[in-house]
Amino acid sequence: MSLLVIKLIFVAVFAGIFGSVLGLGGGTIITPILTLMLGVDINHAIGASLIAVIATSSGAAIAYINDGITNLRIGMFLEVATTIGAITGAFLAGLISSNVLYIIFGLFLLYSALAMLQKKKAEKYDQNRGKALANKMKLNGSYYDKNLEKEVSYHAVHVPAGFGVMYGAGVASGLLGIGSGGFKVMAMDLFMKLPLKVSSATSNFMMGVTAAASAGVYLLRGDIDPQISGPIAIGVLVGATIGTKIMQRMKSKTIRIIFVPVIAYIAIQMILEGLGWKW
């Protein structure tokens, strides 16, 4: 086993743990490390990142679904918005300056990160306002929280707002070629008022569906290198399995404390990209 393979697996295990806990898929870590530290071509790095997202989703989704944390109904409902948005973004590509969009979406993410940071009493959720539509669509559920050692029931609220944010995430993905895990978690947590653990688990499930479609394009273009993607997939799958065990024992407040700086980092990166600055 070569030194590069060992490095790839080590990085992938960490990315799998990180991605499965936060619902970000691991691509946030994989792509910059492969390109900046290991000198991998950017196209091969993105291809490997998509494989990492699929592996994270596969490893985490099974565990979260079995434990009843993932809400499949909400996931598939919001995936419709993401898909429509991605198609819209593909049609708009070339018509709108990508620099402007990077700045707009970056500022929106930064605002959302600050709003999530200010959110108090993370274990308590509004179950009285704006839930009529959610009840009609049966966008509610419950799960057993191993940290709280009790059953947590929840109801989605502000469904149109959550659907709208997911549509915007799809547009961003289609136009800018970026992942939308941060948007997914933020839409469910901040707008639909779902428990953060449910948001993270459902985001993991959704990203696998989205990444599988994108990975097919990269595969046909020859941008998925088995010598890179293979070790990445193995490491991420192991990491995601470990991450699901960790997440279920964590407090929602702790997950939020980790999640917000990561989202702020992604937002600042997008703004600097739009301004044409590198860091």
Automatic annotation (TrEMBL):
One CC-aspect GO term: plasma membrane
Entry-linked Pfam families: TauE (PF01925)
Membrane spanning residue stretches: 9-34, 46-65, 77-94, 100-117, 201-220, 255-272
Keywords: Cell membrane, Membrane, Transmembrane, Transmembrane helix, Transport
Membrane topology recorded in Swiss-Prot or TrEMBL: Multi-pass membrane protein
The keyword Isomerase is annotated on this UniProt entry: no
Subcellular location as annotated: Cell membrane
Database matches in InterPro entries: TM_pro_TauE-like, TSUP
Transport in keyword set: yes
Family to which this protein belongs: Belongs to the 4-toluene sulfonate uptake permease (TSUP) (TC 2.A.102) family.
PANTHER family: MEMBRANE TRANSPORTER PROTEIN YDHB-RELATED, TRANSMEMBRANE PROTEIN YFCA
Protein name: Probable membrane transporter protein
